[in-house]
């Protein structure tokens, strides 16, 4: 999630950074990971924040996220925007509990290791149509980027565990049919 007035302007002006500015932006970052960035401008017209989707490898996604944060922070300095610009990540509620961990241990460890402040939106904000929670990371560009890597690693791990357990249960059902 990004402030709606900052990202599209900042990224589209960086033509050297992006090959195809617009709703879908294909970028090639210094690490040579192909990245597709979708800017969701038409959803929630007039909202204070807009969502973007970054599609790439885990390394490419983290590199793109860091580059976007750098652009946003530079643009904020240029226009003398004094408020802190946090990184906001949307994550399905199914994975948030495992990200937090028992008694908040996982989240506290990420905060300590990355020197950031991380908050997660309350369960009351969930709806049938929006099962996602907002993970807000506050810190400088470097620490936010490191926290994003750790958060996404934990979420990917949870997702992969869910998929693996579904495959095991499907295989067991197949065996029981014979």
From TrEMBL:
Residues 83-156 form the K Homology domain. One of its GO terms (molecular function) is RNA binding. Pfam families: KH_1. This is Insulin-like growth factor 2 mRNA-binding protein 3. Gene3D superfamilies: K Homology domain, type 1. Keywords: Repeat, RNA-binding.
């Amino acid at each position: 999630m990004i402030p709606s007035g900052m990202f599209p302007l900042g990224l589209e002006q960086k033509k050297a950074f992006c090959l195809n500015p617009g709703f879908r932006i294909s970028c090639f970052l210094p690490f040579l990971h192909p990245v597709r960035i979708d800017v969701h401008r038409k959803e929630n017209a007039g909202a204070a924040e807009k969502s973007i989707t970054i599609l790439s490898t885990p390394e490419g996604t983290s590199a793109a996220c860091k580059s976007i944060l750098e652009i946003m922070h530079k643009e904020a300095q240029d226009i003398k925007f004094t408020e802190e610009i946090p990184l906001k990540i949307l994550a399905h509620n199914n994975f948030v509990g495992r990200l937090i961990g028992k008694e908040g241990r996982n989240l506290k460890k990420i905060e300590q290791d990355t020197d950031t402040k991380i908050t997660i939106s309350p369960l009351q904000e969930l709806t049938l149509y929006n099962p996602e929670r907002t993970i807000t990371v506050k810190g400088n560009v470097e620490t936010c980027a490191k926290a994003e890597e750790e958060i996404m690693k934990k979420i990917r791990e949870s997702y992969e565990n869910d998929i693996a357990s579904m495959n095991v249960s499907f295989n067991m059902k197949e065996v029981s049919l014979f």
